[in-house]
Write a structure and sequence with these properties.
By secondary structure, the chain is an alpha/beta fold. It is 43% helix and 17% strand. The strands form 3 sheets. It has an 8-stranded parallel sheet with strand order 8-7-4-3-2-1-12-9, covered by helices on one side. Strand 2, helix 2 and strand 3 form a beta-alpha-beta unit.
Length: 338
């Protein structure tokens, strides 16, 4: 198993994703998520991650700050991470207050994951020029860090202007809750190295690209004298079956549906299946031993602090997701720990 700065073994996080549209009662989605979390905790998971999208009735996302806060209250052994907040669409004073509140309410178990977003529909809904997203992101993150010091802040930037602002609530973790920056291309990985406490590695680059981007991340941190590494949370697409062929067949429809949605939202990505070279894929498929071997190989190349696992796939019911999680927890994790 890979280690990060000799701090200990890889930890496991559960990604709460969406497989329902708005027609399914939200209470059903919440109940399914809570059953998944309960099973994950039984298998030693200690992190729950939830992402953010707006105005997406065909693939409903529950807004992560209130949702994760409620989860942390129900499951006191887990930390919770926004994975990710779409920072260019949000006001940094509001984000600073809300994340500080979540950190205070959860007793210091909050992680703020942030990204720049990509859906044109979301930027249109907020009346924000998508071409400004990187500049908005950087300015917002600078403001949030400054506000979390507790000192009055006067700021007159390109997008935000205010005088003598102080937060009403400060985070419990000092100097701040960990900031994970989502990134999947070289420029954004370099930004994550400069601006964040961790690079939250998206599932879209191939294994080979992930390994290359990891070296970019380390080089950029070293070049800017960044703080010592505290976390490298990594997401990969995993599916367990009794053979690699069975796994690929089972996940192909769900992958096509999921990645078809991403493409319709404007993300340049394919479903990644059927490639002959393992390194050129983003999926880790097959028997429990195949999956453990693949993840171990990847962890030897990219030091993980956390592996963030997603058991839900479009087209597969909740019982199927539970079965995937049980197999990952009972059959894959012990092999990784051996």
């Amino acid at each position: 198993m890979a280690y990060l700065n000799n701090d200990g073994p890889v930890r496991f996080g559960l990604l709460l994703t969406s497989v329902h549209d708005r027609s399914v009662p939200a209470s059903q989605q919440i109940a399914e998520h809570r059953e998944l979390i309960s099973a994950a905790v039984d298998h030693g998971f200690d992190l729950v991650v939830a992402g953010q999208h707006f105005a997406a009735p065909t693939l409903r996302y529950l807004q992560p700050v209130p949702y994760l806060t409620s989860i942390a209250m129900t499951f006191p052994s887990v930390s919770v991470a926004t994975g990710v907040l779409l920072l260019p669409l949000l006001h940094p004073v509001g984000v600073a207050e809300e994340m500080a509140t979540m950190d205070a309410v959860t007793g210091g178990r909050a992680i703020m994951g942030v990204g720049i977003g990509y859906r044109q529909d979301e930027f249109d809904a907020f009346g924000i020029d998508r071409t400004t997203r990187t500049a908005r992101f950087e300015e917002s993150l600078e403001i949030i860090r400054a506000l979390w010091t507790g000192q009055p802040l006067t700021h007159h930037g390109r997008f935000f202007q205010f005088d003598n602002v102080e937060l009403s609530t400060l985070p419990g973790q000092q100097p701040n809750p960990p900031i994970w920056v989502g990134a999947q291309v070289e420029a954004s990985v370099r930004r994550a190295a400069r601006a964040g406490d961790a690079w939250y590695a998206a599932p879209f680059p191939s294994h080979r690209d992930l390994i290359d981007l990891y070296q970019v991340y380390l080089e950029e941190r070293a070049a800017h004298g960044s703080r010592a590494l505290t976390a490298i949370p990594v997401r990969r697409e995993v599916y367990i079956a009794d053979s690699p062929d069975e796994a690929e067949a089972a996940v192909s429809a769900g992958a096509s549906s999921r990645y078809g949605t991403y493409r319709s939202w404007g993300l340049d990505v394919d479903d990644g299946l059927g490639r002959s070279d393992w390194l050129d894929n983003r999926f880790v498929l097959g028997t429990p031993s195949d999956v453990a071997e693949g993840l171990s190989h990847l962890m030897d190349q990219v030091e993980h602090s956390h592996f963030v696992y997603k058991p839900q796939w479009p087209g597969h019911d909740h019982a199927h997701a539970m079965a995937q999680l049980e197999r990952f927890g009972a059959e894959v994790i012990p092999l990784l720990s051996a």
